[in-house]
Structure formats: structure tokens, C-alpha cells
Design goal:
This protein is mainly alpha-helical and 281 residues long. It folds into two domains: 57 residues; 215 residues, Orthogonal Bundle (MetI-like fold), CATH 1.10.3720.10. Helix content is 73%, strand content 0%. The radius of gyration is 24 Å and the shape is globular.
């Protein structure tokens, strides 16, 4: 039986595909365009007039963000927490993912499913227990407290992602290394890790991005402005009676720049990492 899609002419299907992609692209680009143009508008043009292009472009919003709202401090804090969390999580997840996919030990399958179940737990349910733990060990308002809190959801996700990628690597290559005299750690370091670079980079980017944009833990665990992260800092762009939309949009542009740069530089690794496991190796 011929399906309905098979009856649609190829040219019509192509046109429909282009229209759908164009609509989705506009839906994605429009908020970014609005944010970018608003960041260069004067205050009167933002609140009194609706213009699609700034008529009097200004850098005053960026000046306020940098010198009045301590954005450089927030960026520094976020970069420290995101980089440290990503580095630690990647190391733990590669070791855990390799153990769960290559080693045979009692309870391996249960532990592997447990990693997935922990990742599926909503972060909001972990908020109160995590807060109590961090306060109990006196790590509130510290980088270490934020790193540990972010690791609670980053390690399960990264481990599950690495397990899927490692399954696509042929075990015969590792067996050849073991025959040549390597131990498990040598095989992992000299064979598995180089072959897993796309998967590792993909996991690292996802973790870095999630930590960079994380808001709930950053809000609850940091009352001290000296350790505040960028996501919380941007939420404080308001005066007594209104939000400062211009500086907020300028701060958002600055905040998204590092993550955007990382995505651009590592794009080919991300594509390779996401496609891994799509076919059986």
C-alpha cells in the first residue's frame, strides 16, 4: 500500500520542507534579533517607540553592564564554575562509561540503569536536599559548592552519553592493545580516549552550556555577590519600578558570546559525537 507521503510530488515536498524550515528558523532568529537590536537602542527608543532597527545606535547599555552591574565578575565566576565542573565531570564520566560498557561485574546493568534514572530526576526535586547538604558541609557561597551541585545532574547525563558513544567503538581494537601488553588504563588512555574525542567534546560542550545557563542552584546557593553567576546577575537588571531592558539585552549578548564561540569552534566534533552510534560499528 502506497503511503500518503509517497503520493506527494518531489517538488511539492521540497517546497513544503523549505517553508517549514524557514518558519522554524524565523522563530529562532527573531528573539535573537530583538535582543541584539535592543542592546544598541537608547532608553527612549526602547520604551516609547517600536523600531526594528536602532535609529540612534549607542554603546551606553554595554557601558552600564560592564561598569555598573559587575558583569565581568559574574562572567569570571561562571567561567570558573563551568570549566571546573566540565573538566571533573568528563574525567569521571569517561571512567564510569568505560567501566559500565567494557568491564563485567555483578550489578553492572542495574548500575547502568540507575545512572539513567538519576538523570531523569527533575532538578527541582533535588533542590532542597542539595541545599541542605551544601549548607551542612559549609560550602554555601563558594565555587566548590556550585561545582558539586552542578555535578549532581552533569555526571549522570555525561556518563550515559559516553556509554552510548563507547558502545560504537569496536572492542577488537582494545583486545589488540591488551594482547600487545597494555593494561586497561593504557588501553583507555592510548586507544579509547583518542577514538572518543568527538563524544568527549560533545559531552563537554553540553555540560559547559548547562552549567553556564543554570539558574536555580546558582540563585539558591550564592547569596554573596562576589560568587554570583551570570544567569543570576542578569536577573538583577531592574530599578525600583521597571526592568532595565537595554542593559539586560546587552548583558545577554555578552553572556552568550563564550558559549557561541565554543559551539562554532567545536561544531564538527559535536556533529560527529551526536551521530555516533547511529549505525552499528
Amino acid at each position: 500500500m502506497i503511503s500518503l507521503l509517497d503520493r506527494i510530488p518531489q517538488s511539492v515536498f521540497r517546497v513544503l520542507s523549505i517553508l517549514v524550515i524557514t518558519v522554524l528558523l524565523l522563530m529562532i532568529i527573531f528573539p535573537l534579533y530583538f535582543m541584539a537590536t535592543t542592546a544598541f537602542k537608547i532608553e527612549q527608543e526602547i520604551y516609547s517607540e517600536l523600531t526594528w532597527i536602532p535609529t540612534q545606535p549607542t554603546l551606553e547599555n554595554f557601558n552600564q553592564v560592564i561598569y555598573s552591574f559587575r558583569i565581568p565578575v559574574y562572567l569570571r565566576n561562571t567561567l570558573i564554575v563551568a570549566s571546573a565542573t566540565t573538566s571533573i565531570v568528563v574525567i569521571i564520566s569517561v571512567l564510569a562509561g568505560y567501566s559500565l560498557t567494557r568491564l563485567r561485574f555483578p550489578g553492572r546493568s542495574v548500575l547502568a540503569r540507575g545512572v539513567l534514572f538519576v538523570y531523569l530526576i527533575p532538578g527541582s526535586l533535588m533542590l532542597i536536599p542539595m541545599y541542605l547538604i551544601i549548607v551542612k558541609i559549609k560550602l554555601q557561597d563558594t565555587y566548590l559548592g556550585l561545582i558539586l551541585a552542578n555535578m549532581s545532574f552533569a555526571v549522570p547525563f555525561c556518563t550515559w552519553l559516553m556509554m552510548g558513544y563507547l558502545r560504537s567503538i569496536s572492542e577488537e581494537i582494545e583486545e589488540a592493545g591488551l594482547i600487545d601488553g597494555c593494561n586497561r588504563l593504557s588501553v583507555l588512555w592510548y586507544i579509547v580516549v583518542p577514538l572518543s574525542i568527538p563524544g568527549i567534546v560533545t559531552a563537554a560542550i553540553f555540560i559547559f552550556n548547562n552549567v553556564w545557563n543554570e539558574f536555580i542552584f546558582a540563585l539558591i546557593l550564592t547569596q554573596d555577590e562576589a560568587h554570583r553567576m551570570i544567569s543570576v546577575g542578569l536577573s538583577n537588571f531592574y530599578r525600583t519600578d521597571y526592568y532595565m531592558v537595554g542593559p539586560m539585552m546587552a548583558g545577554s549578548l555578552i553572556a552568550m558570546a563564550p558559549v557561541l564561540l565554543i559551539y562554532i569552534l567545536a561544531q564538527r566534533f559535536v556533529v560527529g559525537g551526536l551521530a555516533a552510534g547511529a549505525v552499528k560499528g
